[in-house]
């Protein structure tokens, strides 16, 4: 396998060199000078974030009248250039969907004229042309994504990334911390457009290790273009962390204390003329009670299983990052970024198990079991980037490399007391068991991208990428039976030891053409080659296989005006299973429901279609989107059994074809001065078919997201949030309804450098009962999980220095695997 990887890496390197040499050698031919030799150059920035507004429309108008003379689109850096102009007085009008329009008088001379910077306000913050209110909206609706500005939401203070994702459009987080996007768990999460293997392997726990104060915004991208990896059939969630300053030094320190979590965090950043430095870090913990119930009825044998569990959970997290940016010259820059993310925790549960079978009374079983599950994860990443821009606007070439290390551990200890309703002393345990396992992992990524404009209206984006991923799982189980063994002994047939390599090489191209002033068309495709190999050392088996996947996509956008547009998009995306789906190790922590992965899983493909309408104005914004997603050969969690002893098995298999028909409304408004509201409903019709299981389920579900804030005198702010959803049809049953709400108050003082925030979650109910049902030909089951949501949190944050944002560098995005769910509960 190593020889194979070396050959693939060498081939990819040759392709990278072949693709980049022509780009470096091309120089645009100098045009013959016409009668008009004047030119205008400038930059378009977001007025609040001080970031570029890519592809903003710049139109040259006469001194009087509105008939356009010529126009151009700004490049990725927000820069524009109008050439071959006749000297004289004119006006420049700059606009972009989602922003207010600015018009400025200019004078063209016989030479070059720099008109400076246009700072566009977002449409929701523009009272009149060039009049700006210094506050970003909580939610921005852009043509290709929805952006939740977490730094504008007071109730996030002292929380974690999981708390932030609860409030983003189209997202939902349940009581166990599991995230869904548009009702699907099949999506990819990026951090600053970069992948995190920790997020892929155990998202629910890893999100607890990112403090909310570090998050600037959350971008929800439902139809990603070809430059993104093909993974994530529901789309991509990009968590944008706060960065440094334009010049000088700044930083932040914060602390929080609450009934569910607490922590400390901070950042320190500076920027000189050519060198930028960013850093952040923090540590904290989470804790709380848990309670669950399960009732199962056997349809064939009349058996009954009743389980009641109660306990607590807890854990600690640590997060740190460093970044360096260096501008070699006007057109070349280097960046280096490093980060570490570690978490460790436990979930203690005291289970009462009562199994009764009228037809096989010898299998009846009554016992209590005290289980302490343990887990940990570590992710370390090092990323280097070289970026080159050119005199030709919008042309850019970049080379990126990343090494990531991702290691995890898992295990449990339990003591079982037969024929007892309560726990006894450990020495009285009829059976004891312990298990320890680890999942080592590493990734190496190489990537190059080229953006080549053809005139002012056409752009070609191309790139090559290789991901070389290695992971696996090693676990052992020891048991002690009272009266049979004096000490723990290794249990034969219960261990696992396997390695798994997944290498993905890809190439993409996207062509964009602004056909008219109102119509823009973009088409592209991505070709990915996947090579898999696995070695199962416990039973001396292995496999090697590879496949090619073509992933086309495209979109067309028609702008009725600067603030109104309609967009149609199509994309095909792939899902590759990650380690939690593949690991054949059998988790027996629940004696009546065994859980294990399936190493024979195949990838799934999804075709997505979307039609959306966006409108922005002084009163607010609205996005209406109708979409359809079809997934064949879908990876589903399925339940099998029960066997003669009343034991069911839970694993993953390619057994279904799923279709989602969705209508989503999301808007923001300012009903009165200082009052902001945003949110909207999401309605879905879901069809799930599995011929192999003889199942077809269909039905409606819906959800509602609502966020509001109100500014009071003396720098007080009140904030509220609510999310609710109806049950949804699953392949073998029905999912749970969901409800979560939060209110908070913030006081800003010390010349706007300090905040004191008090938050209350679910103040009117102690818990939310998540009720899931499973119905198969052999059994029916109801699970109840008590998510204790009522909590409070008091947070303090202090900022020093400047607070402007640096420009964002290119980064790697390995969004190509389907991640596992949460291993533990809690918020």
From TrEMBL:
Residues 394-798 form the Outer membrane protein beta-barrel domain. It comes from the Bacteria. Residues 804-827 are annotated as: Disordered. Residues 147-235 form the TonB-dependent receptor plug domain. It is found in: Cell outer membrane. Residues 1-25 form the signal peptide. Pfam families: CarboxypepD_reg, OMP_b-brl_3, Plug. Keywords: Cell outer membrane, Membrane, Receptor, Signal. SUPFAM superfamilies: Porins (SSF56935), Starch-binding domain-like (SSF49452). Its main location: membrane. PANTHER family: PLUG DOMAIN-CONTAINING PROTEIN, TONB-DEPENDENT RECEPTOR-LIKE BETA-BARREL DOMAIN-CONTAINING PROTEIN. This is TonB-dependent receptor.
